[in-house]
Amino acid sequence: MSETSKLNFLNNLLDQVLVIDKSKTICFANLNAKNRFGENILNQNISSIIRDPALLDNIQNSLNDKSSSTIDVETKKPNYQYYKVSVMPGPKNIFNAEETVIIFFKDLTDIIKAQKLKSDFVANVSHELRTPLQSIKMGLETINDGAAKNDKENQKKIMPLIMQQAARMENIVNDLLSLSRIELQEHIRPSDNVVLDEIIKHSVDLHRDLLQKNSITCKIETENKNTEFKGDRNRLTEVFNNLIDNAIKYSEKNTKINILVKTNENNIDVIIKDQGIGIPREHIPKITERFFRVNPEKSKEVGGTGLGLAIVKHIVNQHRGEMDISSEEGKGTQISLNFPKN
Ligand SMILES: Nc1ncnc2c1ncn2[C@@H]1O[C@H](COP(=O)(O)OP(=O)(O)OP(=O)(O)O)[C@@H](O)[C@H]1O
Ligand SMILES: [Mg+2]
């Protein structure tokens, strides 16, 4: 048995392992190291695989004086990776050649990415809440000891603005709670029987005033009567409220929204089509991300936090459904949902 084949048991390890000899040539790579760094890394110099100068120093030190060390390595190109790397002299009972070094890579990329996502999320939430909070504070200061202190007329003008901003904060907090609740339950498929076209009709009815105010017509067409399937009524109402709200918010006056419900034995399809402003192609993959808005300035005007479609996506997932978005700038947007009946 060759020396390095004794190391084949490391092939089953999730971490990457490399062994190099005194000329810094790679003489062993476990399966995951080959998967990560390339099939042909054997007999290559370590510096062609690892570019991190501090890690190369540690390897050199280990070769020189048999020292062990652990170091964090972060790479940004070609993609983001984060490792904890342990460097130690190769054990003599495995290698005849004494001057070898074993390098263990613990891949923490997913954990670090998740941490970053979480801290980005906290930063976003704080920012979104701080904006209306600042407006409320300014309004109250003006009334309390500012320009409107003794000016009833002015106070009356400021009050509704304060209330509007407080309502905005309340909406954000409600959406965030909704999002975290649905995330926790996403793996539990709803088991109640619901009739989808009734839910959609109800949701459109809730938007009647807004539709009228914006001179937008909304038509529902149901191709087949039987739209019953296992679902959560309240959550599905939330889905259609969000989608219809978007179709109205991002459309001009005198346009149409068409909702088509199609069913067959196994699936229900719902297609919501508007004639609105559309979404630039490069933004389509991002619009279900939390807090993403194509045009934050426009969102200030029409009101929107960028949480609606994130909620929709999670609810559709919970129903084991799929969502597809197609859109053309200036022409309109089409959101297609597909739910399996069983
Ligand atoms: N039907 C649509 N037409 C054009 N753009 C849309 C449409 N639906 C969504 N968008 C774009 O996608 C972004 C994200 O939508 P989403 O519903 O998640 O957030 P929002 O409507 O801004 O806020 P919220 O739904 O939380 O009130 C919107 O800001 C808008 O830029
Ligand atoms: Mg929305």
Q: Order of strands in the sheet with the most strands? A: 2-1-5-4-3
Fourth-tier CATH superfamily name of the largest domain: Histidine kinase-like ATPase, C-terminal domain
CATH class value of the largest domain: Alpha Beta
Largest sheet: 5 strands, antiparallel
Q: Bin the strand percentage.
A: 15-25%
Radius of gyration: 29 Å
Distance between the termini: 55 Å
Counted beta strands: 12
In DSSP terms (H or I, runs of 4 or more residues), the helix count works out at: 9
Q: SSE string, helix = H, strand = E? A: EEHHEEEHHEHHEEHEEHHEE
User: Are any ligands bound, and if so which?
Assistant: adenosine-5'-triphosphate, magnesium ion
Helix content: 40-55%
Number of spatially distinct domains: 3
Would you tell me the structural class of the helices and strands? alpha+beta
Explain what the structure shows.
With 342 residues, this protein is an alpha+beta fold. It has 3 domains: 4-107, 2-Layer Sandwich (Beta-Lactamase), CATH 3.30.450; 118-185, Signal transduction histidine kinase, dimerisation/phosphotransfer (DHp) domain (Helix Hairpins), CATH 1.10.287; 187-342, Histidine kinase-like ATPase, C-terminal domain (Heat Shock Protein 90, 2-Layer Sandwich), CATH 3.30.565.10. Helices cover 42% and strands 22% of the residues. It is built from 9 helices and 12 strands. It has helices at residues 31-37, 53-65, 109-145, 152-185, 196-206, 208-213, 233-249, 296-302, 308-318; strands at 16-20, 26-29, 69-75, 81-89, 101-107, 193-195, 217-222, 228-230, 256-263, 267-274, 322-328, 332-340. The protein has a 5-stranded antiparallel sheet with strand order 2-1-5-4-3. A 5-stranded mixed sheet has the order 7-9-10-12-11, covered by helices on one side. Strand 1 (16-20) and strand 2 (26-29) form a beta hairpin. Helix 5 (196-206) crosses helix 7 (233-249) and helix 7 packs antiparallel against helix 9. The longest helix has 37 residues, at 109-145. The chain is elongated. The two termini are 55 Å apart. The model has no long low-confidence stretch (mean pLDDT 92). It binds adenosine-5'-triphosphate and magnesium ion.
